[in-house]
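Researcher: Next sequence.
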Amino acid sequence: MNILVIGDVVGEQGCEFLRRHLPAFKKLKAVDLCIANGENSAPGNGVTSASATHMFGSGVDFITTGNHVFKRKEVYDFLDSRKDIIRPANFYSGNPGRGTGVIDMGSVKVGVINLSGQAFMNAADNPFVCVDRLLNELEDCRIILVDFHAEATSEKRGMGFYLNGRVSAVFGTHTHVQTADEQILSEGTGYITDIGMTGPVDSVLGITPETAFDWLVRGISSPYKVPDTPCMLCGCIFTVDAKTGRCTGAERVCIK
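Model: Next structure:
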């Protein structure tokens, strides 16, 4: 089974680039399942029902998120009502939405876990302790994928080895910069520290350099502005044995 995971989709520009390129790419690579991080997909940051629906209509089967998921209050009911979009499981339990999801592929069930890191982040619970509990809840899923939305490379690498042999793949999101360390760990878990982003190439993590300068130079927080410049789509394809749940291939993806 070929599972494509796509890095943080940024703004309308990222959504439109996704729509133009994803359908043909899925056919080219014989993709069976597509998961994308959509926490930055709405104009001005966050996610809305409209931006999520746009992603679903473009060929995304399941959406994960991260620390910006609750920025737009209009998405709260959407998170509660849908089972194909999740937020980090180690956020406060009373928050809207859920932290895991199950995709029934017929012959196999695919479990998806969304976690937030603690280093330089605001996760409520320890992600390593949290994931142990979640794996027990998904014991009927032969394939399990983990989107670890975290800042620190060390924390992400640690999660990969912590879950080695226990899940099919661990992929990092949040930093928007794709790493070149895709691999299959010793016990059959696919891993990459960060799958990158889907959005403008000439940007600072998807936003205009000038917007970033407001914070970096002057310490002023400005509304996010996404430049209308050429985009890219970044991610990774994990090939997983549907009978064993073990990862047999990891291919880094970057479409420009």
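Model: Residues 109 and 141 are 5 Å apart (CA to CA). The chain has one domain: 2-200+229-255.
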